[in-house]
Amino acid sequence: MKANHLINEKSPYLLQHARNPVNWYPWGDEAFAKAKQENKPVFLSIGYSTCHWCHVMERESFEDEEVAALLNETFVNIKVDREERPDIDGVYMKACHIMTQSGGWPLTIILTPDKKPFFAATYIPKETQYGRAGMLELIPKIKSLWKTRRADVLSAATEITDVLRQTSTEKGNELSEETLRRAYRSFLVNFDKAFGGFGQAPKFPSPHHFFFLLRYWKRTGDAQALHIVEHTLKNMRCGGIYDQVGFGFHRYSTDACWVVPHFEKMLYDQALMAMAYIELYQATGKKEYEIIVREIFTYVLRDMTDEQGGFFSAEDADSEGVEGKFYLWTEEEIRKILTQKEADLFMSLYRHSSDSELPGMHEIPAGNFILHLKPSTGDQIDFTQILPEIESIRKKLFAVREKRVHPHKDDKILTDWNSLMIAALARGAQVFDEPDYTNAACRAMDFILESMRAKDGKLFHRYRSGEAAITGNVDDYSFVIWALLELYEATFQAKYLQKALEYNNYLFRNFLDKKNGGLFFTSGEAESLLTRPKELYDGAIPSGNSVAYINTLRLFRITGDAEVEKQANEIYRAFRAHADAMPTAFTQFLCGLDFAIGPSSEIIIAGDMDKPDTKELLFALRKHFAPNKVVILRPEKSAKPVIEAIAPFVKSYSGINGKATAYVCTNYTCALPTNDPQKMLELIN
User: What's the pLDDT score for residue 386?
Assistant: First the structure.
């Protein structure tokens, strides 16, 4: 690529742009003289070498021939390094604050030839999305404005803002924060204030509803959104839907109180419910939610893990031909196993006289009961305070129950469900600083990559008795990518990011509906059926499309690759009309929409995993509920870390003051680096 006018500059930031197709000039008389001579406005772009979104905008727009041609035709283009010229940055950053009430880098200002600003923005995408005007639409509008209304330009900042707002509403089916509000209002109306959950019996877990509601709480500060999640998850943990002796969740509750379950246990419920409690722990800091997560993982690692590291699919509801028999107790049994004091305490907590009135109880053999605590009312006994005594009782009961005939275990290993479990374990490993969870997640991923792949690298869906078979579907690939992203943030091993990008590219090459957007459930290489289905709704588990949407948003923020952003938009355009019509059926997708609308953050940590100061930054970051973020580690020890090949912009990041350093970009705007964990969290918020 031919060099532009920045080629002789000393600034690393300017030299990074010296071979863009944009005809950049450095700040100086030559550029403004050219603007006056050619009667063109000036496009001023200000940034710095470690600004993540500056690099994204470069790769997405300034390296793009189509955008560059528009810029060169319409403007004289000037690049400024804010660290080299803080004086220029200070003047035009103030102008940006006056015009937009916000600011940051990359800073985009459009000037008259005599240096007067008439438009300001930070990051601008190539194409219009999520209400943010894109370069391809914005530039022609400004060109027209300059030609037809030049006399009004200096005094028309508010009119230009109106033009930008009109751009954001040109498409009637664009989704926005209003979509999120409508979904929340629907949950609010259907919320069961007594027992939690939504509607009447039967009640299903649907953890992606909780993911959405926690993000809505984070976005709005609406305490009721958090209450809905916390009240529901407390009651589920108290109920018979939770195995009070052996841990883990049953499939669903047949009654409104979460007491009488369908006793089947599914791997995906354990994974998704664990993630819901992890996020609730991050949001509230309450120890009881960490305890629940650890219990779920105890069950999975104890009862649902293959010796090679994969996870089994499910446990049946029946044993000896009777549903729930394995899980039921009589008072006589309890009193034979426990001391009188223990039995009295246990029976007072776990059996209730009103249970006989519940739907489904008539199917329970006479004298038997389902263990459950009283529903949460906000003033019930604090289970965490009596946990040591209860844990001793639980272990005695568990030892006896283990001698019973166990329900049938479905020991097939599924790529998609395993990936959900890997993602949950990797998330738990981060939040609770638990290496055992990291090891289990890595081991399970190794099993998938070694035993559930064809020779050409494509995924199989199922493994059992030494055989991997059935062509992988959209959930297999989407969920594996999710798991790989979580594993990267748990370990910062770049190999997981590389594999995630590899599978993401395969997914969009082979599953994309090029006409209507979104991903088909089956690959183009799979068996041809009467129809080629496309799952959009988030049902018992999130749809592969919803997960792929969030994956691509995360991968774009990590890599800055505009092609990955286009992949996200392919799913967005397939979902828009459906999600607009019935948002509560798309709550996992709405989590992605929440991320895309922002604010969202990219955090680059320059440091080494084995150093206390790096661990301190990561510990603070992981305990904090900030779901709309990606985290990248730029190792200090390695001369050329692998992450640089995936995210080239991290090359210029390094520790400051001899300490691990956090570089935070929030809502397309980069802040100055910090060594202070608290300051880092303030920047994210």
Answer: 62
Residue 469 has φ and ψ, to the nearest 5°, of -155, 170
Q: pTM, whole model, 2 decimals?
A: 0.81
3-state secondary structure of 645: helix
Q: Where are the alpha helices (DSSP H) in 474-611?
A: 474-491, 494-510, 544-559, 562-581, 587-597
Comparing CA positions, the residue from 187, 181, 281 lying closest to residue 593 is 181
**For the chain, percent of residues with pLDDT exceeding 90:** 69
- Give the integer Cα–Cα distance in Å for 241 and 220: 31
Which among 477, 478, 494 is positioned nearest to 609, based on CA atoms? 494
Residue 300, CB half-sphere, CA atoms under 13 Å: how many? 34
Q: How far apart are alpha carbons 88 and 100 in whole angstroms?
A: 18
Question: Using CA atoms, how far apart are residues 42 and 31, in angstroms rounded to an integer?
Answer: 8
Distance of CA 178 to the CA centre of its chain: 20
Query: 465 in helix, strand or coil?
Result: coil
The answer to whether residue 154 scores a pLDDT higher than 60 is: no
Amino acid at 451: S
Q: Please, is 432 exposed, middle or buried when counting C-beta atoms within 10 Å of its C-beta (0-12, 13-18, 19+)?
A: middle
Q: What is the distance between the alpha carbons of residues 109 and 132, in angstroms, rounded to a whole number? A: 16
The full DSSP string for 481-496 is HHHHHHHHHHH--HHH
Domains and CATH numbers, the chain: 12-168 (3.40.30.10), 205-290+318-406 (no CATH), 304-311+413-588 (1.50.10.20), 598-685 (3.40.30.10)
Q: What is the largest CA-CA distance in the chain?
A: 98
Q: Provide CB contacts within 8 A for 175, sequence distance 6+.
A: 130, 572, 576, 579, 580, 593
Average pLDDT over residues 249-265: 93
Q: pLDDT of 160-197, one tens digit each?
A: 433 323 333 334 368 999 999 999 999 999 999 999 99
Name the residue with tokens 């792949």: 453
551-579 pLDDT, tens per residue? 999 999 999 999 999 999 999 998 888 89
**Closest residue by Cα to residue 583 from 172, 168, 175, 129:** 175
Distances (CA, A) of 347 to 248, 253, 329: 21, 22, 11
State the CB neighbour count (10 A cutoff) for residue 141: 15
What are the structure tokens assigned to 407, written together? Answer: 């329900």
Note whether 17 and 5 are within 8 A (CB). Answer: no
Query: Residue for token digits 């007491």?
Result: 259
Q: Is the peptide bond preceding residue 359 cis, with omega within 30 degrees of 0?
A: no
Q: At what angle do helices 65-74 and 135-148 cross, to 10 degrees?
A: 10
The answer to whether the CB of 45 falls within 8 A of the CB of 3 is no
Measured torsion, CA atoms of residues 338, 344, 348, 352, in degrees rounded to the nearest 10:
70
d(CA 293, CA 436): 14
